[in-house]
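Handout, section 3.2

Students often ask what a structure token actually looks like in practice. Rather than define it abstractly, here is a full record for Glucose dehydrogenase. The first block is the sequence as you would receive it.
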Amino acid sequence: MPRSTLLAMTLALAPILFTSACAAAPDPAADTAVKAAHWPFAVTDVARFREPWAMTFLPDGSLLITEKGGKLIHFDPASGNRGVVSGTPAVAYGGQGGFGDVVAHPQFAGNGLVYYSYAEEGDGDTRGAAVARAKLVLDADGGGQLREAQVVWRQTPKVSGGGHYGHRLAFGPDGKLWISSSERQKFDPAQDMKANLGKIIRLNDDGGIPADNPFVAQGAPADQVWSLGHRNALGLAFDANGRLWEHEMGPRGGDELNLIQRGGNYGYPIVSNGDHYDGRDIPDHDTRPEFIAPVVTWRQVISPAGFIIYNGALFPQWQGSGFIGGLSSKSLVRVAFDGEKAREAERFDMGQRIREVEQGPDGAIWLLEDQKDGQGGRLLKLTPKAG
């Protein structure tokens, strides 16, 4: 039986399929969907933003929210006050490109530094992601300015097209800056160490190269690289034991959750548990054991975006769980971890594309929707349901 026919039959029989790195073949999962009547949380519609992409909390409980078109918004959930932060860069807006992620430095209270990613124009018809840092100075009216901006990293080479920038940011327990650099829909650069596309990047907080990166001896840009063989990485999160987990949009039928290993090669585009969108087969991971297989593969894709590993007190039953936003699946997906293993545990149908997930200072879970029909994407707050 052709593989494509078998896959179609399997998807018709099981609404959610996943594989783990220790499994030889996908096993049908029990339906993890939780009906709204049984959700343990209430949803509060807090505000709307124009094409919101990412958010981060500041120590005072206020939020920085990026809008894809190029604006950085400072928003106070308590008062509803919002202001524009000036000093943002010009962005290459279009396709998946624009203003991207934003995170505060671990010592923000002392140094005031924030880091942000964006797509920028190159020579000719080329584009690439960049990451900059600047000092955030807030105004009394709720807005602010970015001062002394400095670019600390760029994708290389810049290429044509408007897809697969990645540019998610995270600070690790080691104080290093981690960046997801997607392969820009160009496939082969994910395996090319003369490019930093399709890689997970690890830098010092000033953009310098850590001496213990695995490929330092190869020189630039390989010296930035922690792992390679990635497609479109849109989520980075560290667990309580300091392990880095990453999710990425795979090709058709191949979304992944990966445990990132130093110097690891995750195989794309040589292997994937999905297929090309034009129907061409890609060999599965089990055909090439030298590549690291995903811990979870979604055969019926969720289109993951945004990622936290929860450690708050408001939902004690979820401490240590991962939460992933789903775009095409219009869902919030809870992942249960057991050491280096993981599985989808629950899925909540949110009715809209979920772009971003964050944990608030009090342990509430916050979501950003993709914009819908020009009405703006909602900022949602999830808190325990009364009773």
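Discussion prompt for tutorial groups: The first helix runs from residue 3 to 13. How would you have guessed this from the sequence alone?
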